[in-house]
Amino acid sequence: MVSFHVAGEALVDIVDSVAHPGGSPLNVAVGLGRLGREVTLSTDIGADKYGELIEDHLRDSGVQLATASSVAEPTSTATVTLDAASNASYEFELHCALEQLEPSDAELLHTGSIAAFRSPSAQKLIEVFSTAAQDQLKSYDPNLRPALVDDRNAAISHIEKLCSLAHVVKLSDEDALWLYPGWDTDRVLERILDLGASLAVMTFGAHGAQAMTREHEIVVPAFSVTTVDTVGAGDAFMAGLLHALFEGSLAQDLLDGKTLDRTELERALETAAACAGMTVARTGANPPTLSELNEFLLSVGS
What we know:
The chain has a single domain (3-293), classed as 3-Layer(aba) Sandwich (UDP-N-acetylmuramoyl-L-alanine:D-glutamate ligase). Helices cover 38% and strands 21% of the residues. It is built from ten helices and 13 strands. A hairpin with a 5-residue loop joins strand 11 (199-203) and strand 12 (209-212). The longest helix has 19 residues, at 262-280.
């Protein structure tokens, strides 16, 4: 079985005084685990009730917590506020340095979000990405939280370095606006490819996604669903995309530097969009299982 290693923050989202396991890397790991993948999450969690909640959540989704993930600091938290359109904003208390993070022999290494642009965890992730084996596929999702950026230039430096080290980069239109104000989609995706990525994807929420390689440009629509909230939608998209890359030849072709099959790539992006759509149609970061995904895709004729 293909093995996946996800590294980054795990925290609890506190909504109306109720704690829910979250954090972008954790959500991606859970999404992959529910899709039947063998996943390990490297993170920092404390020996407290929130840490126990995260461990239970990972276990329930088939995700293995790396043994070096227990730290003396409290488990990180994010207090969530939803606006009238059900969009989430966050107030964070973070404790994620990833000092014990080590390279792994997993076939895919993924990171993203807060730990990947804040010191000292960003430097640790860059080190692990830089020393990864040649046959390890690497993916990255900036998933920015601008309110947590202390030094814009340093954050952009970390983000672009990880883009240069990853085969696959997925970012949102909001990420792109913060990183490259005034740039259109094509220019942003071309920038990511120029940095070194082989597949660059931008998501637009209800307006779908656009992907670019050096040979292809593909636009996929979002699935029409009734939105409950948008929490975890981008992470579900990322998990669905990574899952789909390993369903056929795409992952190996990315490693080998080959031209990706356009039809296969379109199918992978549709799978990612389906995972995102299913997640926004229910409360919280609650990505689908493999059976739920397959049933949904069958029902819409994909």
